[in-house]
Design a protein that fits this description.
Elements (H helix, E strand, L loop, with lengths): L10 E5 L28 H13 L4 E5 L9 H9 L6 E6 L4 H10 L4 E5 L5 H7 L5 H13 L6 E6 L8 H6 L6 E6 L17 H6 L5 E2 L9 E5 L7 E4 L12 E4 L4 E3 L8 E2 L1 H6 L1 H13 L25
Helix pairs in contact: 1-2, 1-9, 3-5
This protein binds S-adenosylmethionine and iron/sulfur cluster.
The site of iron/sulfur cluster has 13 residues, from loops.
Length: about 325
């Protein structure tokens, strides 16, 4: 569907749960989040209804995220149903990778195409620290399992944090020589991270300065928030997600569905449309509500402007 500004909206990101088996410091409060009641959370059937209606409006790319999507009971059945929907060309999942060893093969078997894995450090102690308890070995095993069943291209997403992992940028870039895509993400001042000191926020230009031999990719997708490069001889790509330092809003092609049934036309805005009542009304009403949400997409965000209102929801409750 084309929005009010002429942008083609064809990408739906679905948060299937706001629960998680990690507590990453920039994403989740230390105590976790208050568990919502059954009624507040969309059932898998309701999530599927929203995806189905969105596909009718021209969505052809779906990503499942969270919280941690692999902790949601029934996730395989949901993947299977979405994968068989006519019109879905790309079905992917963003995960912290901990449960991939267990689920990679089943996910592939039910129709998942690829995974993005979030990994901010390759040091065991630092991983334990940033995730408040995670075991890096399990992530490595998960990456291996995803490789073995070709959930490809595998993309590793790294949130770069000044004073924490900015000394690992070159090591991460080297992973592209093993055929993995690596994407550096600018830390966003959302939720937990909204009160973090400025020194933690590292721009992609600063990251690029540490990688002097980058060769730009010429056939980039304009609606992707990432710009891509390669190291000589590497089969994987290096992406830079410039959500803060460079607006990609003009090419934005996405909307988000939260686990509690809110459509978010823009990640960087507090605007939310509760579509739960429409799901319960019927397909026509639901499609109408999604259309209205798409038409309500803002022109652009103002996250790097000082008078901008803070984003209240933690990332874990939005679906990054
Ligand atoms: N649990 C899954 C995972 O970690 O991949 C999916 C959900 S997580 C919210 C999705 C992505 O959002 C992760 O790559 C995470 O690093 C990123 N993220 C969370 N908070 C962020 C922030 N404040 N700035 C930038 N990225 C953030
Ligand atoms: Fe969980 Fe992902 Fe947030 Fe980490 S980034 S707390 S793994 S939702």
């Amino acid at each position: 569907m084309i929005d009010a500004l002429g942008r083609k909206i064809n990408y739906l990101r679905v948060s299937v749960t706001d629960l998680c088996n990690l507590r990453c410091r920039y994403c989740m409060p230390i105590e976790g989040i208050r568990k919502m009641s059954h009624n507040q959370i969309l059932s898998l059937e309701e999530i599927f209804k929203v995806v189905e209606a969105a596909v009718d409006l021209g969505i052809n790319k779906v990503r499942l995220t969270g919280g941690e999507p692999l902790v949601r009971k029934g996730i395989l059945q949901l993947v299977e149903k979405i994968a068989t929907l006519n019109g879905v060309d790309d079905l992917a999942l963003t995960t912290n990778g901990l449960l991939l060893k267990k689920y990679a093969k089943d996910l592939k078997d039910v129709g998942l195409k690829r995974v993005n894995i979030s990994l901010d450090t390759m040091n065991k102690e630092k991983y334990h620290e940033i995730t408040r308890g995670g075991d890096l070995i399990e992530v490595f095993e998960g990456i291996e399992a995803a490789k073995n069943v070709s959930l490809c291209p595998i993309k590793i997403n790294i949130v770069v944090i000044g004073g924490f992992n900015d000394n690992e940028i070159v090591d991460f870039a080297e992973l592209t020589k093993e055929g993995i895509d690596v994407r550096f993400i600018e830390l966003m001042p959302i939720g937990q991270a909204s009160s973090w000191s400025k020194s933690h926020f590292i721009s992609n230009d600063a990251i690029k300065a540490k990688l002097p031999d980058l060769i730009p990719e010429t056939d980039g997708d304009k609606s992707s928030p990432a710009s891509y490069y390669r190291l000589t001889g590497a089969s994987g790509k290096i992406g830079f997600i410039n959500s803060i330092s460079s607006h990609f809003c003009r090419y934005c092609n996405r909307i988000r569905l939260t686990a509690d049934g809110k459509l978010k036309p823009c990640l960087h805005s507090n605007q939310e449309i509760d579509i739960k009542p429409f799901i319960r009304q019927g397909k026509k009403e639901l499609t109408g509500a999604i259309r209205d949400a798409i038409l309500a997409k803002p022109t652009e965000h103002s996250l790097n402007e000082t008078n901008n209102k803070p984003i209240i929801r933690d990332m874990v409750r939005i679906g990054g």
